[in-house]
Amino acid sequence: MSSNCKIHLLDGGLGTTLGDSHKVQFTQKEPLWSSQLLIPTHPHGPKTLLATQKSFVDAGADILLTATYQTSYEGFGGSGYAVHSHSSPKSEREDGDKKVVNGIMRSAIDIASDAFSTQKDSNGKIALSLGAYGAIMTPGQEYTGKYDDEHKSSEQLSSWHHERISVFSRDSKCWERVDYVAFETIPLLAEIEGVRKSMGEVERLNGGAAGSKPFWITCVFPGEGYCLPDGSSVQQIVKAMLGKNDGSPVPFGIGLNCTKVGKVEALIIDFEQSVNALVESGEISERPSLVVYPDGTTKGEVYNTSTKVWEIREPPGKDDLHWDEAVLEIVKGARERGFWREIIVGGCCKTTPREIGKLRERIDRLDKE
Fewer Cβ atoms within 10 A, N terminus or C terminus of the chain? Predict the structure, then answer.
């Protein structure tokens, strides 16, 4: 059974690669982070973004995440555009700016598509990257889940996520080029429920499941703990991801991202046990795919959400495995257990095309065994 579990390679950390390889600096004055480069007037701009995404394709990535993780009307509002979340344009300028911002956001799909275009016989897939609400806060709160009072319930978060995803889903030419929707770095149980509800709205407005897209949900497990920042256990997480939940659409893939490699193996086993419990209870009939893309940070490297700088607080040990080696061992174990339908694996923060290329080589060798 394990040999039938196909492994797909995701790309790596876009924002950190832009910073480390292209010297793009992000500050609190740039609330869109890597999405800032979608703006044509940015000093680095779309060309640098395209070159970076193409480098992941050249490294062997099967799937590219779009540069939309932190896109939001709030972020563009903080970047000089007259746009506001959940607000209809009240002037000619606001109406014009909203159309411009929508076009900028959708251009991320074009850039990802162009990154694959130079590959002969490319079957590359595009995943629309949508970060947690906390990712657009200043400073970012996707690692803490400390949201404002207007974005705490599943209904509030569903409304916010639906407004953003609608920018893409209501434009048919843009939407048809999206292969997957990736809800990433989710820190709250209520937000898991909220993104599922938002996909339900997409289905409803696009004429049913045929007008929707396969989507995955990945959570973040910061620090040394094995639960969400809100205290939710893996069992509760899996229930929220796959349970019936008032008929909300079910993600095809579940898992984690933006998490230390050393914690991933134990977390995946917890996910497997929790999914199996739902199967045995009869609540679900099919196992999902596993989606896992941990950070590529060295041991003790921590992201400071206020300064937007990675800080090393503990030196790595001499016996620590290289990132690609550690991730391959995790994936190999997951495939050998024969639990998941498919596995999507890649890297999050601090993983460059170099790490993704090495992981590509290891996966290819594994497939030949």
Answer: C
